[in-house]
């Protein structure tokens, strides 16, 4: 509600409740003339008199009585809304609409989401998983996890973590039996790649940079790529945190370990608002801490 109107309504209500303008002015720390002007402005906008005025008595007109009843309801609603919004701003609560890539649903979000609902019992989470671009504004999302830089100026990206990529293949694949780090061997076998991401390899010693052979299969979903690799269809560049357990168990084998891949960046993305809700701030903080712990576990 308009701030000026709220002030005028409050002045009117206090004048009615105190019985005169001077008492209302004293209570509101205003001058009597300022109170009078506020009420006259209301009457001008309504086109009706709100008070019967006499030197000693100030009584409500019929219109004033009706307006006062509406006025106290509007002030009560405004106060209630203000308290709810303040609670929302200062206390993590309400439904958090979170959007993330499908691969994050494989366990990367388990710890931060568990912490979020454990620490803040007034928060509920609606998680949507998609590797396709999501219109956050249209979807009404509070927070999205995204890979790489953003182009949309209506969104704000906050860096969460950098994670490694790994070139790997299933242990049953012919490439897994090759002991050579010769990158030429990769030209003989089919490569699988994400439809929106390509990376070059750099030799750790010589810093020579090479581009992998064109992918024979491109997919728009990282979990599907991981499954295809596990099924022995081909080799691929995969996000290390999403396949860490498969690498540790030996189901997947790293390839060409003399070569390195760049890290990929993970961002927390929000609509471009001046103030974030407390629930969103809490979620970003827990995501950052949890993802840092995942990086530390790899380093150890």
UniProtKB/TrEMBL annotation:
GO terms for biological process: DNA-templated transcription. It comes from the Bacteria. InterPro entries: LysR-type_TF_proteobact-type (IPR058163), LysR_HTH_N (IPR000847), LysR_subst-bd (IPR005119), WH-like_DNA-bd_sf (IPR036388), WH_DNA-bd_sf (IPR036390). Keywords: DNA-binding, Transcription, Transcription regulation. Residues 1-61 form the HTH lysR-type domain. Pfam families: HTH_1, LysR_substrate. The keyword Transcription regulation applies. One of its GO terms (molecular function) is DNA-binding transcription factor activity. Belongs to the LysR transcriptional regulatory family. This is LysR family transcriptional regulator. It comes from Pseudoalteromonas prydzensis.
